[in-house]
From TrEMBL:
Protein name as annotated: Antitoxin
Domain of life: Bacteria
InterPro entries given in the database record: Antitoxin_Rv0909/MT0933
Biased composition (Polar residues): 32-43
Segments of skewed composition (Basic and acidic residues): 1-30, 44-64
Region (Disordered): 1-64
Amino acid sequence: MSVMDKLKQMLKGHEDQARQGVDKAGDAFDAKTQNKYSSQTDAAQKKIDEQLGIQEQDRDNPPQ
């Protein structure tokens, strides 16, 4: 079993929390680098979301 499979299994049912964590980490990184690498950060966040099975529309419309 690959590492990604293990992560997906652990996060099953907690996709919203995972997305929030990815967003928070990206925002912290952007703050530290003064948004110098924001496009790369956004691309990395999108790639992580794809790997975790989080849809783009879910990112744009988080649950309340």
